[in-house]
Amino acid sequence: NQLLSNTFKLAMKDVGFSTFNDKLVGSEPLNWRNVITPATTPLTAMYKQHMESPVEFMLVKGEVSMVKISSEEPQWSVNFKKALVASLKIQLPAQGMTSFWTVMEQGLEGKCENTYQVSELPEYLIHEYEQGMIKPELCQGKKYYQVMKARDITKCLERSIFLSSKTHSKCLLGNCDGTNTKSSITRYFGCGETFETIQLHGMINEGELQQNVLAFNTEPVVTGTKQILKLVATKPITSVISDIVAPKTLTDILYEFPKPMSSQIKSNEEQKEYYQLSTMDPSNQVFLPEGSLESISKTDIKAKIIEKLTTVATQLAEVEHFGKKEIPSHVLCVDTTAYHVLCVDT
């Protein structure tokens, strides 16, 4: 929904999810890009409220200059929507249109180098090439285009990635050799009389992270994410996107880390200043993703402990597939949490 010439409002609807821990099947050659995932199920009321809450953003010369989002949304929901906004936009070159250009562009990882390439697609391939990405009935007398965007997170003006390993520490000093590799390729599809007048019909984003979890010779772990957006229909707007509840304004789309002590942070620069000041405080040397223990409800923690103990007792009573159970990790979690609760209570 476009509010002004450069301001847009986006909302998701009927969001579903699926969880799985089984071997998936798909077309050959088999990899994470073409496996078939289980059917989705509706979200619970709390998650539905967060996911379907609108986000408003402003574009200035292709760059996001403002993001307005509900202050009631948790950090993971804010970052999810920032990633969605980042995948939807194309940043055009500053010096006129060409078929190939490179720009420094904001994303979750930071302001990094993005390389764009525009290709005109022959009409006879439209029904075969990435089927459903272009609607030919909306392209009569127009040309078909693909825009490919490759993101390089080793070339960044600023970063928002939390670096903790020794290898990553070297990267902070300018030596990024051997760090975990991450790639992101986005393809946009559409048609227009020229590229400047292109109307986008679809988008496919594929991101891949390869990493060695331990610091010695181990099998690399590959994590993949795939986003697909398709134009379903063009029709008059008959419904209005709801207002944002308790809105707050952010000035970038960089990844946000939990910051329970300062909810007024609006940009990556303020976030960096916050953590720099935090490291100078000797009493604040532990990074807690969920915030300080004092701020966590003891009733909630005790309920979680009881839940874990119940899980352990149930698994101990069942002898089938005992090797696949995660009893030690559950016990360690309970032991660590109980220790911290006792320390805080005393």
Task: Tell me what you see in this structure.
The protein contains six helices and 13 strands. The protein has helices spanning 45-51, 75-88, 166-172, 268-279, 298-317, 327-345, and strands at 2-4, 7-10, 16-17, 41-42, 55-60, 63-70, 100-107, 110-121, 143-159, 181-192, 199-211, 221-230, 247-250. The strands form three sheets. A six-stranded antiparallel β-sheet has the order 7-8-9-10-11-12, with helices on one face. The chain has a five-stranded antiparallel β-sheet with strand order 1-2-5-6-13, with helices on one face. The chain has a two-stranded antiparallel sheet with strand order 3-4. Residues 283-290 have low confidence and may be disordered. With 346 residues, it is an alpha+beta fold. The radius of gyration is 23 Å and the shape is globular. Strand 1 (2-4) and strand 2 form a beta hairpin. The N and C termini lie far apart (54 Å).
Sum this structure up briefly.
It is built from 6 helices and 13 strands. By secondary structure, it is α+β, with helices and mostly antiparallel strands.
Question: What labels would you give this structure?
Answer:
single chain, 346 residues, alpha+beta, six-stranded antiparallel sheet, five-stranded antiparallel sheet, 6 helices, 13 strands, globular
Radius of gyration: 23 Å
General form: globular
β-strand number:
13
Share of helix, binned = 10-25%
Helix/strand/pairing category: alpha+beta
Q: What summary fits the major beta sheet?
A: 6 strands, antiparallel
